[in-house]
From TrEMBL:
It comes from Paenibacillus sedimenti. This is Probable tRNA sulfurtransferase. Pathway: Cofactor biosynthesis; thiamine diphosphate biosynthesis. It catalyses: [ThiI sulfur-carrier protein]-S-sulfanyl-L-cysteine + a uridine in tRNA + 2 reduced [2Fe-2S]-[ferredoxin] + ATP + H(+) = [ThiI sulfur-carrier protein]-L-cysteine + a 4-thiouridine in tRNA + 2 oxidized [2Fe-2S]-[ferredoxin] + AMP + diphosphate; [ThiS sulfur-carrier protein]-C-terminal Gly-Gly-AMP + S-sulfanyl-L-cysteinyl-[cysteine desulfurase] + AH2 = [ThiS sulfur-carrier protein]-C-terminal-Gly-aminoethanethioate + L-cysteinyl-[cysteine desulfurase] + A + AMP + 2 H(+). Catalyzes the ATP-dependent transfer of a sulfur to tRNA to produce 4-thiouridine in position 8 of tRNAs, which functions as a near-UV photosensor. Also catalyzes the transfer of sulfur to the sulfur carrier protein ThiS, forming ThiS-thiocarboxylate. This is a step in the synthesis of thiazole, in the thiamine biosynthesis pathway. The sulfur is donated as persulfide by IscS. GO terms for cellular component: cytosol. It is an enzyme of class 2 (transferase). Residues 60-165 form the THUMP domain.
Length: 400
């Protein structure tokens, strides 16, 4: 069976008035964007949902594209029938038989929009339900907790039937909650943090620190590839590549002890904040998760985080690694993240990085490094920015 229509449900039902209209307008624009390859679709918006007539397009292909639309809670393949009892009954039965797994219980819910249809919705529930029941031995009706619910809408010209409900990405439409800078390493966590931030409606630019030649060209390519994967959820993404070698080696030259990681990470945050402000971004997003490594204990996060005044958002802070990996697999970043190339954070690691750094001591150390402010400015100036465009096969990038 080939669906001829889709029903898309838009999320965040708590939104009202102007916010709701803005929300729906943004979801619609994103839907049209991911459906650019399907020019024959026809959209019919209604309150809280959109009917999309497929015009011959494949539902399977269209539904894969829909998983990239934030603000969409669920969607259903749907089928049209003429406004005639027998046609509706027959289609209902075919749809039930075509389900991937045969349910033990079901119910029919009819909504009669077209009041000139001869049977009201109660009567139709019985007429359609009864027809399906007599053809499906073993199936029973459960009006409270049915395994599947077959919905029938009696519209002005045709009936519309649907039974499957597929979960969408949820969240807020892209860009409706502002813009932020994602600190993107080559690891598993930060791309997931980026995806969760985008799902919450944040438009992202990404920043990556590399310490060439200590980190390889391949490590940089891996990050470009991760940004490409994330840019599939938006239109395109700016990636700022920061040459971090001078900062890192200069700190290491004068200090090699257990606060080294804290010092290096504070320098990263300082650079990230300067780039964020230059680009007009209102927050920094990172992939930190409480307790995961020495630099992610509460006191490390405290000493590192207070170096910037922009809000730092850490979507993974309370999540377990397993939960993070599950999302990484779902959004397609996991296979890229586990490629072996080094991240600059793993360079010059002291034998036992501090899990409980002292802010006063750290500040005093920084004060003694009078070369640091200029090296930080220089890193910002020398940052290279590339625009990552998503395409199914390969990112197309061009240098600014
Ligand atoms: P990830 O898997 O994201 O690398 P992690 O668990 O390895 O995270 P850290 O290496 O301590 O943790 O990094 C914490 C966060 O700092 C990262 O999630 C990322 O947001 C940021 N970060 C680390 N290294 C870099 C880098 N080279 N460039 C940009 N951001 C980085
Ligand atoms: Mg890392």
């Amino acid at each position: 069976m080939k669906p001829d229509c889709m029903i898309l449900r838009l999320g965040e039902l708590t939104l009202k008035g102007r916010n709701r209209r803005r929300f729906e307008k943004s979801v619609m624009s994103q839907i049209r964007h991911v459906f650019a390859a399907f020019p024959d679709l026809r959209y019919i918006p209604e309150y809280g949902r959109v009917y999309v007539e497929l015009g011959g397009a494949s539902f399977v292909e269209a539904s894969a594209a829909l998983q990239k639309v934030f603000g969409l809670t669920s969607f259903s393949p749907a089928y049209h029938a003429p406004l005639e009892l027998e046609a509706i009954q027959e289609l209902a039965l075919q749809m039930m038989k075509a389900l991937p797994k045969q349910p033990a219980t079901f119910k029919v819910s009819v909504r009669r929009v077209n009041k000139s249809f001869p049977y009201d919705s109660q009567k139709m529930n019985v007429l359609v339900g009864g027809y399906v029941l007599q053809a499906c031995p073993g199936l029973t009706v459960d009006v409270h907790h049915p395994e599947v619910e077959l919905r029938v809408e009696l519209r002005e010209e045709r009936a519309l039937l649907y039974v499957e409900v597929i979960e969408g990405a949820g969240g807020f439409p892209l860009g409706t909650n502002g813009k932020a800078l994602l600190m993107l390493s080559g690891g598993i966590d930060s791309p997931v943090a980026g995806w969760l931030a985008m799902r919450k409606g944040l438009e992202l630019e990404a920043i990556h620190f590399h310490s060439y030649p200590y980190t390889s060209e391949r490590a940089k390519e891996k990050v470009i590839e991760l940004a490409r994967q994330l840019s599939g959820y938006t239109h395109s993404m700016k990636l700022h590549l920061v040459p971090f070698t001078d900062v890192q080696t200069s700190i290491h030259r004068v200090y090699q002890d257990n606060l080294l990681v804290t010092l290096i990470r504070r320098a990263m945050y300082r650079i990230a904040e300067k780039v964020a402000e230059r680009e007009g971004l209102d927050a920094i997003v990172t992939g930190e998760s409480l307790g995961q490594v020495a630099s992610q204990t509460l006191s490390s996060l405290n000493v590192i985080g207070r170096v910037v005044s922009l809000p730092t958002l850490q979507p993974l802070i309370m999540m377990d690694k397993q939960e993070i990996i599950r999302i990484a697999e779902k959004i397609g970043t996991f296979p890229i993240s586990i490629l072996p190339y080094e991240d600059c954070c793993s360079l010059f690691l002291p034998p036992s990085p501090s899990t409980n750094p002292n802010l006063r001591v750290v500040e005093k150390l920084e004060h003694s490094m009078d070369f640091l402010p200029e090296l930080i400015e220089q890193a910002v100036r020398q940052t290279e920015t590339i625009q990552i465009m998503f395409s199914e096969n390969k990112a197309t990038q061009h240098l600014f």
